[in-house]
Amino acid sequence: MNANDASLFNVNVSIVHPEYFFIAGLTGVPYSNYYYIFLFCTYIIAVIGNCTVLLIIAFDRSLHSPKYIGVFNLALADFGETTALIPNMMRTFLFESQYISYNACLANMFLFFFFNTTQSFTLVVLAYDRFVAICLPLRYHTIVTNTVMSLICSAVWAFNAFLMASMYFISRLSLCKSNVIQSFFCDHGPVFRLACNDNSINSVIANLNTGLYLIAPLILILLSYLGILLALSKITTWEGRLKALKTCVSHLLLVASLFLPIICIYLTAITTYLSPNARIISVSLAYATPPMLNPIIYVLNTAEIKLLIRKVFKNRSVPI
Q: Which positions, given as ranges, span the membrane (predicted)?
């Protein structure tokens, strides 16, 4: 089947939409199926890990606190992001079903970026929680309550839904240059660049979304930690400083796992040429690994969750 076959296109007035897109994926890479299987393994670990965190927080009343409301929302976003991405990749490349309908492509694009941006903003919410806990410890329980944290997280989900609604403008493009998407999923950039009419609005939206979900959250997180460092400098003992800083270790690791790979990819793409295959591998790893690592980081670095898991295994090991 010719990817540029004119019969694939439906014409509605002056706007041309392909009936199907062809997801190119890795090209000319031997044994690329093994890489997709590796990504599927990360998906399985991510699903098990995030579902475990969700269930632990949901059923253990001692974890019904503002911090863990934020962690619950992060685990939910991680689960949604990886589920919107990896299973479709498996169907596309392992089962040689690289064609996807126009509507399914846009739906997949919306869902993936909706959960992906929610991850970034939830890390900002968790940074706010740590900022208040360390800088205003005596007022923490009056400022950051369960109700306040629930409202903030609800606002994050609503804001991201509104933000992703801006992708409506992609439906106003005539995508008639080709129906081949040079990516491993329905990525916004590779799709709107297929337009043969003016796509400047979509380019602005792409840059705006990058600023809102990458640059703005990172700046807010850095500002919160600047305030935390100033507060720590006022603590007289090193033991007190380390004890307060230890509560931030999990969050800092989450921030590093999400933002550092994406920043490195952007800087590499700006400064040097990044081949399509290199871009696909680097971006897919940057999207697939944080949802897998996040629950592991929280289990290993959170005393409350480790204690609860120990209790569960201890109770199971007791003979009846």
A: 34-59, 147-170, 212-232, 252-274, 280-301
For position 196, what pLDDT does the model report?
87
- Tell me which residue range forms the domain holding 44: 20-317
Structure tokens at 163: 């933000």
Q: How far apart are CA 28 and CA 25, in angstroms?
A: 10
Q: Give the separation between CA 211 and CA 196, rounded to whole angstroms.
A: 26
What is the pLDDT, as a whole number, of residue 319?
A: 54
The length of the chain is 320
**Which distant-in-sequence residues (6+ apart) come within 8 Å of 263 by Cβ?**
214, 218
Question: Could you identify the residue written with the tokens 């460092």?
Answer: 229
For residue 7, the model assigns a pLDDT of 43
Residue 159 burial by Cβ neighbours in a 10 Å radius (0-12, 13-18, 19+) = middle
pLDDT digits (tens, 9 = 90+) for 112-135: 999 999 999 999 999 999 999 999
Distances (CA, A) of 164 to 23, 110, 258, 288: 22, 6, 19, 20
Buried residues in 51-68 as b, exposed as e (16+ CB within 10 A): ebbbebbeeeeebebbbb
- pLDDT at residue 281 in the model: 93
> What proportions of the chain, in percent to the nearest 5, are helix, strand and coil?
75, 5, 20
Q: Is residue 1 part of a domain?
A: no
Please list the ranges in the chain whose pLDDT falls under 70: 1-13, 303, 312-313, 315-320
When divided into structural domains, the chain yields a total of: 1
pLDDT of residue 317: 57
Note whether residue 5 is domain-resident: no
* Pairing mode, strands 15-18 and 20-23: unpaired
Instruction: Write out the two tokens for 202.
Output: 């979509």
Cα 30 to Cα 26, 33, 38, 183, 279, distances in angstroms: 9, 8, 15, 17, 17
> What CATH number did the domain enclosing 120 receive?
1.20.1070.10
Structural domain includes residue 256: yes
pLDDT for res 282: 93
> Does residue 114 fall inside a structural domain?
yes
Token readout for 241 is 């400083």
